[in-house]
C-alpha cells in the first residue's frame, strides 16, 4: 500500500501534539508544522477541513541515506498529514518503503523499512 493512515479520537490540534511526542520517543523530530487550511484561508481561497502537514526527520538517518545516494533527498523529510474528513480526524503518511523504491538502493531500502516501522509505531501510539 502507498500510505499508512490511522483514525484519531482526538482533534487535529491534539493529534498533532500527540504525534510530536510519539515521534520524539522514536528519535524523530517535527521540523515544520504547516497549517494548510490557515494559509489557504489567509489567501482567500479557503478550505473547509483542517489540514496540517508535518515534516518529520531524524538527522542521523537523513545523513546516512544522503551519504548513500543524494536521490534519497527527494523524499526527505518524511511528510505526515493530519486532517479532518467526514467528521473524523486522520493522520497519515506515504510509506517510506514505497517512496524509496524509486531510489533503487538496497541499503536505503533497509533504512526505509526501519523508518516506516518506527513512524507507524509512533502514529499508532499517538492515537490510542
Write the layout of secondary structure elements.
Blueprint: E1 3-8, H1 12-25, E2 29-35, H2 36-42, E3 51-57, H3 59-68, E4 78-85, E5 88-94, H4 96-100, H5 106-126
Antiparallel strand pairs: 1-5, 2-3, 3-4, 4-5
Helix pairs in contact: 1-5, 3-5
Account of the protein in words:
- InterPro entries: DUF302, TT1751-like_sf, UCP021774.
- Residues 35-96 form the DUF302 domain.
- This is DUF302 domain-containing protein.
- The protein has a single domain (3-126), classed as TT1751-like domain (TATA-Binding Protein).
- The chain is globular.
- The model has no long low-confidence stretch (mean pLDDT 97).
- Helix content is 45%, strand content 27%.
- Strands 1-5-4-3-2 form a five-stranded antiparallel β-sheet.
- The chain is built from five helices and five strands, in the order E-H-E-H-E-H-E-E-H-H.
- With 128 residues, it is an alpha+beta fold.
- It has helices at residues 12-25, 36-42, 59-68, 96-100, 106-126; strands at 3-8, 29-35, 51-57, 78-85, 88-94.
